[in-house]
């Protein structure tokens, strides 16, 4: 059999007789692994909660506090599914494919629990890559895992640190709580958060974003600047609107520069 393109349309060639390329299989494997809690050897030793734990936590929060809009009103709504819905969709996707595979391969069916189903499927990825229906399975499993990951990705808990730098990994670096290291959910790569943030900011300087996007993006990278403030800078001609009058967009580098000036002025007084 000659090489063919990956059935998941990632654009990569499949080097063996499978339908799906190894990196796409690895992406699904890593996402399935991310369901489990993970022990990070220190120092300090810590347990990174897996997707299953995070979903449970988020569902508890929803039950306690509801899923209504944010208190400030200006924070953009980033997702419109609740954690409990995402969990139901994920459980159903994993259970459906587990049942099909277990029956076809004559394997014992694992318990109907996220962790058990994910652990079972993790070992079926190589087999799935070689099946004609494997693309549908991997596509659905990956989509359900990514959706659930996004739903529980609360900005207050995590910091985004950009796309993973591991070759052929399609994951993203996320830092947890006050962690010094950002961690890719799809592979085991970690990166020093501050170094990575500086690098990302340098690369992001020419990007155009709206004021609320800037507030969120720069906030996640350690620079506090309010959307209202950004509009004020523009109104006072200190900042150029590079979008339209209806949808003002600003250059990241320009806003960083003004934010740094403001922080330097204020910082001296506060410190
Ligand atoms: Zn692929
Ligand atoms: Zn990665």
Automatic annotation (TrEMBL):
Protein name (database record): Uncharacterized protein
Source organism of this protein record: Oerskovia douganii
Lineage, broadest ranks: Bacteria, Bacillati, Actinomycetota, Actinomycetes, Micrococcales
């Amino acid at each position: 059999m000659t090489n063919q393109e990956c059935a998941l349309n990632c654009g990569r060639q499949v080097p063996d007789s499978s339908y799906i390329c190894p990196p796409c299989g690895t992406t699904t494997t890593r996402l399935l692994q991310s369901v489990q809690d993970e022990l990070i050897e220190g120092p300090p030793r810590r347990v990174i909660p897996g997707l299953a734990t995070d979903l449970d936590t988020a569902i508890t929060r929803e039950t306690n506090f509801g899923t209504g809009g944010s208190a400030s009103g200006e924070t953009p709504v980033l997702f419109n599914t609740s954690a409990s819905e995402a969990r139901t969709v994920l459980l159903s996707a994993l259970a459906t494919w587990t049942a099909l595979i277990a029956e076809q391969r004559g394997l014992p069916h694992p318990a109907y629990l996220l962790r058990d189903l994910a652990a079972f499927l993790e070992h079926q990825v190589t087999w799935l890559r070689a099946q004609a229906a494997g693309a549908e399975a991997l596509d659905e499993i990956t989509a359900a895992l990514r959706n659930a990951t996004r739903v529980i990705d609360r900005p207050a808990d995590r910091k985004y640190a950009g796309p993973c730098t591991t070759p052929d990994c399609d994951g993203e670096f996320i830092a947890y709580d006050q962690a010094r290291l950002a961690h890719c959910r799809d592979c085991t790569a970690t990166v020093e958060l501050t170094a990575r943030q500086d690098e990302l900011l340098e690369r992001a300087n020419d990007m155009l974003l709206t004021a609320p996007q800037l507030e969120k993006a720069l906030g996640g990278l350690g620079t506090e600047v309010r959307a209202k403030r950004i509009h004020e800078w523009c109104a006072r001609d200190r900042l150029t609107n590079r979008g339209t009058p209806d949808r003002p967009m600003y250059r990241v580098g320009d806003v960083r520069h003004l934010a740094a000036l403001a922080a330097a002025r204020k910082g001296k007084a506060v410190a």
